[in-house]
Amino acid sequence: MADGDSRERDRIADPWGRRTPYGARQAWPVRVDQQLGGDRDGDAVEAERWVPSACVLCSNGCGLDIGVAGGRIVGVRGRAGDRVNHGRLGPKGLYGWQANGAPDRLLRPLVRDGGELVETGWDQAMDRIVERSRALLEAKGGGAFGFYTSGQLLSEEYYTLAVIGKGGLGTPHMDGNTRLCTATAAQALKESFGCDGQPASYTDVDAADTLFLVGHNVAATQTVLWSRMLDRRRGPDPPALVVVDPRATPPAREADLHLAVRGGTNLALLNALQHELFAAGRVDRDWVAAHALGIEELERTVADWPPERAAEVCGVPAAQIREAARVLGEAERLLSTVLQGVYQSNQATAAACQVNNLHLLRGMLGRPGAGVLQMNGQPTAQNTRETGADGDLSGMRNWNNPSHVRELAELWNVEEMAIPHWAPPTHAMQIWRYAEQGSIELLWISATNPAVSLPDLARVREILAREELFVVVQDIFLSETAELADVVLPAATWGEKTGTFTNVDRTVHLSERAVEPPGEARPDLEIFLDYARRMDFRDRAGRPLLPLIDAKRGEVFAARYDAGDPPLHRWGPAALAPEELLARAREIEKTPLAAGDWSLESRSYLEKAGIEVPPRESGLHAVSALQICRLGMAADPVPPERVNPVYVRVPDAEISRNA
Ligand code: SF4
Hints:
659 residues; alpha/beta; N-terminal domain of TfIIb; Rossmann fold; Dimethylsulfoxide Reductase, domain 2; 4 domains; seven-stranded mixed sheet; 26 helices; 20 strands; 14% strand; globular; binds iron/sulfur cluster
């Protein structure tokens, strides 16, 4: 069966499906999309059971259930009660699962012998990595290690990688392919709001009276989000739509105002829009005075950008710029979205910040329908940043903030100087430079294929092929990068392992293992933990740095979200077997708030928010990076009734050190 409303509907030809119009502040109607069977039309396959998960194929992160029969994935269906998609799935979600059953999945570890990659066992492959690691660590220190990861792993896997790299080896050379994709989003959020977290929710689409899409072809990149926007546009009180894009994309064709900028000129246009907001007195100066800094400087900057000057640069007629400024200036609930048309363009971070600034000038933040979403590529991409598997420190901590470093050292129980923070973290392209120059001698690549995806490919392949560089590749296929590796580790993928991921609007989904990985493939978390165990990383007290050392235990983190608007999310680890953890996660879903369950990491933010926090001696801990983000980002104290926290009580003091 194809989509819930029509068996005939070809969801490749019609990515957005049937319209379900709704009005402002109404609930988006449910429409459950489902695909069972191996082809587009659907075979008569029935699922024996359904396993809760979510789609990882774009940053929308739609909730879905995985259909399983005969130990295989046979399909998916959207989850009607999921706040992100209300049952809908786009073409990638409906058909992407078919890649799990690809015949060329990696089934066994490989090591290079006599110039050839040959199959071997896990012990032999891991021993080879550990032998080289120990020798390098002793002779050269942590700086000889580089980790290049992706936007495709799960939160727990990234976090474990971050602890290994920054707490165990002490290397600053960690980054992900997300650096070349949506790093602008992270930087713009930090520059504008002080924290890499999104100040909006998808539910803001339900309440917005104006949508402003800047360099974001949402119809192609996040089909279900576009369905939501289209449903608002077809319902009563439709929101105005303003689109900035050089191309006549579907959103541009749908828009009330299409500002067809010349490529690379977003900033001129955005400056002129702000020029007009100031000129027309559309700046909420009281709100700005209470919540933001630097308005005078911004006003001086955009004073030089009247629409006529911007029109010469960006090619959008001055009258259109004025009209757009009027629409944006009169909006009472403005939701903006930003993606690659900004990030992969000239003056990317400045332009992304100018969209944020537009919201600051108009006070369009922190209430239903008002916010900005700096989009990502996949829901898992946010996790690279949250967990510190890239240049940041875990829990969105800043390497340049001594109190953050101290706090992390305390949590991991390691020396502050063991955590690399003496210089800016090494960005992705510099990692490759160091590998080329020879200071990085072991490069561990997980879930990405730089031999086809990085710029300057010939050079990248030469680096990977260097005799002196020991390359570990962890992947589900024998990719072009894996073909150049010294050791190849076969990984499990979505549906074959359990963990969580965070989408753009901060919803955390728990994705459960539906089927076993093929052959001897293992979850990435299990691989990282196995490496940590073999390397015997220890904290200051001589205890294992990663207590969750046995991957059969503590494989998953409890995750939940509540139903606020926008919702607040939290997650935390526990040292239980996966089955127990899942039972616990479900129990937490049902449990009413317990007044004593507080987060150690969130403490200072809760205190800032004027919320009574129980004493540290209570021993109640949980990780809540997203909540930190949410609270840390708020310029005003967050009212206690909005915080409404529920925390996972970590049962073991040993574990809580790493929470
Ligand atoms: S919109 Fe994105 S998350 Fe949702 S089904 Fe499509 S690809 Fe998956």
